[in-house]
Write a structure and sequence with these properties.
Blueprint lengths: L10 H12 L4 E4 L1 H8 L7 E4 L3 H10 L3 E6 L4 E6 L2 E7 L1 E6 L4 E5 L3 H6 L9 E2 L5 E2 L4 H6 L9 H7 L2 H13 L8 H9 L9 H12 L5 H9 L2 H5 L8 H8 L6 H8 L4 H4 L4 H14 L5 H24 L7 H10 L15 H17 L6 H5 L1
Parallel strand pairs: 2-5
Antiparallel strand pairs: 1-2, 1-8, 3-4, 4-5, 6-7, 8-9
Helix pairs in contact: 7-9, 7-10, 9-13, 12-16, 13-15, 13-16, 15-16, 16-17
Length: about 375
């Protein structure tokens, strides 16, 4: 089988392949670029695998005119800058020792050994620079069936790195068959070993959840996470029931992982997912607004066009109600509106706390009017 794509004609990548092959080494594209090309999905990053040791890769790449960055020599990886784009080149490896987070690796001599240490069969796919695919583990069959399946024994793969539990659900959301469900053996292993995720850092969990919730429709995968006890392990108190209605109400709009996280709820999200201050503020604002009764225009004025619309979507999903007619236009109208009364309009009759209190009272009236009362009305 052959793959095709613009990435195969990348002059930098092709030049690096020829440099390695000219010295008698294998040079193979691996993982996501091969998987996505076979699925007809855009390819973002190029990764390569080779039997050449990192030091040899560095020497050969520099000799061919490439700039080399020793990004992960202890793991056998060097980054080669090819036509301004980074290309990660990793020597074939096998795991010697793992602790659930980190692995001690040794270099391997064959594609088969390298494939055996990867997480899922659909990621253990290789292709040479001509596009010929090498499939040591039957990953193409799983890819055609849209089945996310662990390489070898699922429990062993998970014990090597507990983050693979979250990756299992993320890959199902991105590439799996929503009607076929998750691989039963893999799902069972995730449920049995969910406690191991306690040793994962908040940064790693947060990064994985961002990617999962940004999938076109993460609801089936997140629901399976809840049933397996995985969701409660990383987000205590989270409830996935509003996520599917939210995705439906979004109507194909660009996925927003933070809006979807707000639909899940849960406690201590800032610490558990290592949210930034801005993300924490936006999350709190959306959740507070969704629980209130402000109109779409008022939400747009207070939160801006993006988060105002997010809050309206979130409220409808949580309350299991349809969106009000004209809600998006109303949100945009509110975002463009200007509060017609200023402090100067109330001075000098009012000063200090009395002035602030009166401004807030007028603002409440204006919002209650759906932002329709004029300055004269509000000052009357």
């Amino acid at each position: 089988m052959k793959v095709s794509g613009a990435w195969l004609s990348d002059s930098g990548a092709q030049g690096l392949c020829r440099a390695l092959e000219g010295a008698g080494h294998q040079a193979l594209f691996v993982g996501g670029c091969v998987r996505n090309a076979l699925m007809g999905v855009s390819v973002a990053d190029l990764d390569m695998a080779t039997d050449a040791l990192p030091e040899i890769v560095s020497v050969l790449a520099e000799k061919a005119g490439f700039r080399v960055i020793p990004t992960g020599l202890q793991h056998g990886t060097v980054t080669v800058m090819a036509d301004g784009s980074p290309l990660e080149v990793t020597t074939f490896r096998r795991d010697v020792e793992t602790d659930g987070r980190h692995a001690l690796v040794a270099f391997a001599a064959s594609v088969a050994e390298d494939a055996a240490r990867r997480d899922f069969t659909m990621n253990a796919l290789y292709a040479d620079r001509h596009g010929m695919v090498i499939d040591p583990l039957g990953g193409i069959l799983d890819l055609r069936a849209r089945r996310v399946r662990f390489v070898g024994d699922p429990e062993r793969r998970i014990r090597e790195d507990y983050l693979r539990i979250l990756r299992f659900f993320r890959f199902h959301a991105l590439y799996g068959d929503p009607d076929g469900g998750l691989d039963a053996e893999g799902l069972s292993a995730c449920a049995a070993l969910a406690e191991g995720m306690n040793q994962l850092s908040a940064e790693r969990v947060g990064a994985e959840m961002r990617k999962l919730l940004a999938a076109a429709d993460p609801a089936p995968a997140v629901s399976a996470m809840a049933q397996a006890g995985v969701l409660a392990r990383i987000l205590p108190g989270a409830d996935p029931r509003a996520l599917a209605p939210l995705v439906y109400l979004e109507g194909g709009a660009d996925p927003d992982w933070l809006r979807r996280l707000a639909a899940l709820g849960g406690a201590e999200l800032e610490d558990r997912l290592r949210l930034s201050r801005a993300e924490s503020r936006n999350l709190a604002a959306m959740r507070d607004a969704a629980g209130g009764m402000e109109s779409a225009a008022a939400l747009g004025w207070r939160l801006g066009p993006k988060r105002g619309a997010d809050a309206q979507l979130l409220r409808a999903a949580l309350m299991e109600q349809p969106l009000p007619t004209g809600w998006l236009a109303a949100s945009a109208r509110g975002a463009a509106a200007h509060f017609p009364v200023t402090a100067a309009d109330l001075m000098p009759d009012l000063q200090g706390e009395a002035l602030g209190r009166r401004l807030r009272e007028i603002e409440v009236r204006w919002l209650a009017s759906d932002l329709t009362l004029s300055r004269a009305d509000l000052l009357a």
